[in-house]
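Memo to structure team: turn this sequence into structure tokens by end of day. - J.P.
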Amino acid sequence: MSSPTSTPASLNTPSPTISPEALAEAAERRFRQATPQLSAAQLAAEHERRQKFRRLIDPGITRPNPKERALSSLKTLLTISENLLREPDNPKYQQFKPTNTVIKRDLVDPKGALEFAIELGFRPEVKNFQPYYTFNRNRLEDLRTGATILKEYIDLETEKQGRAERSKKNEKEAREAAAEKVKLAYMDDRKAKILRDEIEKEQRTARAITAANRAAVQLPSQDPLPDTSMPGSGHILGLTGTDDDEPPAYQNHPHSE
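Reply from structure team:
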């Protein structure tokens, strides 16, 4: 059987949020409506078959394997089932080789995956010394039931992952918005501080200029030196004012005789 390379388009469309129990009950109701001719015993047998496939998924595959590996195995099993259901007479879909790279990765190596394929109706055999798993055409009902359970589980997990991714994205956006808000607040604080520093600098400069002006007004005025020249015409004491140079005559003293 050729390697499964694609996942059905329906796997990419998330189903509405619903619990696994409600999903299983809805599937059971659809099955009863589609097959009203089944007896109570047949419906009970079908219900047990569905439950068996559910147990093969959980805990069979999902618990012992990493989540991503388990989901990849389930998608590969669903691709194998749907290809065969769509073209049951196509030989390339009726068998697969366990040595195929994708089959080994998703069915042989993970725990429980190959057991699920066997429950779908594939049995091991050797052809030309090559190992194969070939589908038993008598197990078509098992194949159909297993494909239904696989799709239900994958749809539910896809929706859960979508919700988790949206929640994670919203949390990331909230963290980024908060960080941006802090950054903007920091930048605003820086700008406000720079503005305050400039205003304070201008105020200090203005105060210094005002103080200098006041100091200049309070300094005493620089008056010119006072005039020390004596008033008068400049006569010499003792002179009579005559033009001759003879000294003045002295009066005789009354006791000079």
